[in-house]
Amino acid sequence: MKKQLLTIGFLLVLFAMSPAQNPPPSNTFDRQVAAVLSRIKTPTFPKKDFQIEHADNFQNAVNQTIVACHKAGGGRVVIPKGEYVCNGPIRMLSNVNLHLSEGTLIRFGTNPADYLPVVKVRWEGTVCTNYSPLIYAHGQKNLAITGNGTLDGQADKFWFAWKKLPNGDDQEKAKTILRKMGETGVPESERVFGAGYKLRPTLLELYDCEGILLDGFTARRSPFWTIHPVFSKNITIRNLKIGHGTTNDDGIDPDSCEDVLIENCRISTDDDPISIKAGRDQDAWKRRGTRNVVVRKCTLQSRIANGFCVGSEMSGGVENIWVDDCTMPNVTLGITLKANLDRGGFVRNVWVRNVTIDSCRQAAIRMQMDYHSYRGGNFPPDFDRISLENIHVRSARDYGWWLVGVPSKPIGLITMRNVAIDRSGKGNKTELTNLRIEH
Question: Keywords on this record (predicted)?
């Protein structure tokens, strides 16, 4: 198809909205981002180093040194150059900076029993107890993982095959049980998984923490989602390199978090490189959502999924998201908002600008309320006040933009400024959406 510049499909529904509700122009974008960044304080640590010595049990050595550093008032726990096997989780504590020296490689063991006892997590949007993430913290403040070393979850050595073992469908059964517990309000104390189930652990999960810095390291081959802060705030994630894991290997998923900066990251995964989340269905409706997230100067690549997305677990609400100066070399979908009619919640005040999408296999810009796993609820989400500016799409196999609401909940105001689509196979599709084009 010939080059298109801001070509609009038909509008089935168009609402009149006051100027105060409109997404801000570019000059307001910078002012609002500056206000968020002024609240995000990078953790600082005493200038004391606690060196990890080579030991037969690397996991014990690391965790004991973290405890010693924490009790001494904090500092850096330094892992020297070398290759290590960690048979069990690393537990982060307040005022500790776990520093991975250049040339450090930590391979996490692949025996699920090593990640017991169970700990509190949010698994794909529902709170429960499950196998410990490979690196875990709960209720800690002022913590960091820094340095140019590598964390390797070894998903291809075991976790990927786990689903193919006898009773390998236990994960699907467990997911169904967990989601029903969340939907019906089963007390958290009764949502106990782990042994006997196959809910894979995340690589790094920081639960109910404040003052987080993740800087410089490589994370690869995660068993499940890779970087997953939950119910946390004041977060800086920068200069990370994230590689493929197994299925559902999202790169960075802030989940019911507040005041988050993600910058200068290079992410290449099978699933979503960055996905903004806020819990799943009824379990998330009375919990806090995600707000005030800045994503900038990132390269986002996915073999089967989106470049940048919100959802599909967004039931606690997602608002005030700024994405700037990002590149998506090769994705299935580019910029995506996704949910289904079980979700409820809202996505609003999202601004995306200065993004280049080289190639996408479906649509460059996709907003959908009929995402899979619908169980028959009647709780459509609200999508409203989404702004896209200076977006350049070189090639979209199917649609440039594909924006479709549902009759009971049309999509609210979508504003596009200078959105250029060089080639698309099917043009654009817009239904039950209030789309406004500004040149």
Answer: Glycosidase, Hydrolase, Signal
